[in-house]
Specification:
This protein has about 475 residues and is an alpha/beta fold. The protein folds into 2 domains: about 240 residues, Rossmann fold (3-Layer(aba) Sandwich), CATH 3.40.50.300; about 210 residues, Class I glutamine amidotransferase (GATase) domain (Rossmann fold, 3-Layer(aba) Sandwich). It has 13 helices and 25 strands. The protein has a 10-stranded mixed β-sheet with strand order 13-12-14-15-24-23-22-19-20-25. A 7-stranded parallel β-sheet has the order 4-3-5-2-6-7-8, sandwiched between helices. The radius of gyration is 23 Å and the shape is elongated.
Length: about 475
């Protein structure tokens, strides 16, 4: 049982949610982050749910990297609060973007919803409503969201896609009369905001500097059409969060060791999918991180292990293929036993080649397989798995929680090779398996989060340290 300590701390905060996806909550949250940062406030963005792409935009809108808040990984409310307080330290306001609809959840009881996160954090909610083809009915919709789980504190509404001033008047009057909520923003249809997207969602902000104007447009629209003072008042009305003790830490760090471990992290425009919590967990386990650009760096620096996260290598496969020297360095290092951990896009990069429609482009060739792009997703959603014997990083039977979203599958896999995970939920390679183990490589479609797989970072660093000592 948690122990409540004295001196609860103020953490101005709010959740930006919507009745359903595609209502505009990402563009509005991005705009809020940018507009409030422009006022000189330190803004900490968070994203509810497993996601890398929306956080890339939220990070770009302010001066602080977006962090994850997901009940699937942070199983207890206390762990979720701890992760929030860790990320919010030093911020003047925290903005938490929800996912899907406010009450949507992978669980029938709603414990995994955005609303559940808001309640755990005692955070007020601003509801973003797409008002296309709607007038007085908006009050029925908002009132239903107020009363469905009444402990959820819906504190204000932003109206999106409003046709004209007469439309705005009807919407405002209905909400203020029937729901007794302030309308803190009205975005007209003529100012509709869009962020470029493609398969699997929005384009990551880090891929292209030409996307910066979209971020600026979000900020300008929010500054013009949202009452920022009202938004700040709602966030500052959130009650202080108590200090808690007696729960397990969110991230499990290994004791510091005098043996230096250098872990290369391939991070560039092609590989952008990294949770900051994962990188922090590696550092807290004793690793020095060395960042590598697979598009530009022509040699592999001295590292004791390599971490290749996800991304969209298929969008950069010609540039990746053109960097032959780095591909060769990685292939030779893998053959010589370098520990490599790869997720999704990293798996694709380590394969012999990527095939997309009629094209086939060479990749690293460290894995005895090819990867084929497909029109439809091959895996999308949460993953629960158990570590199998031979897993390079986790003890046998360890339960991990992760997620996957990939429009590719592995083909031409040579031989009957072992796998790292037995899936209880998810698709992975198919057949209830994921995490190909080949020599000293573990390559999976599953993306891990340090909180959902707390031994992962310590295991990776320990195995790398063993190689430095000559034990592995």
């Amino acid at each position: 049982m948690s122990t409540v300590l004295s001196n609860p701390l103020p953490h101005p905060r709010l959740v930006v949610a919507a009745p359903q996806g595609r209502s505009g909550k990402t563009t509005i949250t991005v705009g809020l982050c940018a507009a409030l940062s422009a006022r000189g406030l330190v803004v900490q963005p968070f994203k509810k749910g497993p996601d890398y792409i929306d956080p890339s935009w939220l990070s770009g809108a302010g001066a602080r990297v977006c962090r994850s808040l997901d009940p699937f990984f942070l199983i207890s409310a206390a762990s979720l609060r701890r992760a929030f307080k860790r990320g919010a330290a030093g911020a003047a306001i925290s903005l938490i973007e929800g996912n899907h609809g406010l009450y949507d959840s992978p669980d029938d009881d709603g414990d995994g919803s955005t609303a559940a996160v808001a309640r755990s954090l005692q955070a007020p909610v601003i509801l973003v409503v797409n008002t296309a083809r709607m007038s007085r009915s908006v009050a029925a919709l908002v009132h239903g969201y107020q009363t469905f789980e009444p402990e959820t504190n819906i504190a204000g509404v932003i109206l999106n896609n409003v046709a004209q001033s007469r439309h705005e008047t009807k919407l405002r009057q209905a909400i203020e009369h029937h729901c007794h909520l302030p309308v803190v923003g009205v975005l007209p249809r003529r100012e509709a905001l869009t962020i470029p997207d493609r398969h699997l969602g929005l384009i990551p902000r880090a891929e292209n500097d030409e996307l910066i104007p979209a971020l600026a447009a979000c900020r300008q629209a929010v500054e013009q059409y949202v009452d920022l003072d009202a938004v700040l008042a709602i966030a500052r009305a959130a009650p202080p969060l108590p200090n808690e003790a007696g729960d397990e830490p969110v991230l499990t760090a290994a004791p510091k060791n005098d043996v230096s471990v250098r872990i290369g992290v391939v991070r560039d425009r092609a590989f952008t999918f990294y949770y900051p919590e994962n990188l922090e967990a590696l550092e807290e386990s004793g690793a020095e991180l060395v960042f590598i650009d697979a598009l530009c760096d022509t040699s592999l620096p001295r590292v004791d292990a390599l971490y290749i996260g996800g991304g969209f290598p298929e969008m950069f496969m010609d540039e990746l293929a053109a960097n032959r020297r780095l591909r060769q360095d990685i292939r030779v290092a893998a053959a010589n036993g370098l520990l490599i951990y790869a997720e999704c896009g990293g798996l694709m990069y380590l394969a012999r080649r990527i095939k997309w429609d009629t094209r086939s482009v060479d990749m690293v060739g460290a894995l005895p397989c090819d990867v084929e792009m497909t029109p439809q997703p091959q895996g999308h959603g949460y993953v629960m798995a158990e570590a199998l014997p031979g897993n390079l990083l986790l003890p046998r039977y360890t339960t991990i929680r992760g997620h996957e979203f990939h429009n590719s599958h592995v083909i031409n896999l040579a031989g009957d090779l072992p796998f790292a995970y037995q899936l209880k939920r998810g698709n992975g390679f198919g057949g209830g398996r994921d995490g190909l183990v080949y020599h000293n490589i573990l390559a999976a479609y599953t993306h891990l989060h340090a909180a959902g797989s707390p031994g992962w970072a310590a295991g990776l660093v320990a195995r790398a340290r063993g190689a430095v000592k000559g034990e592995g």
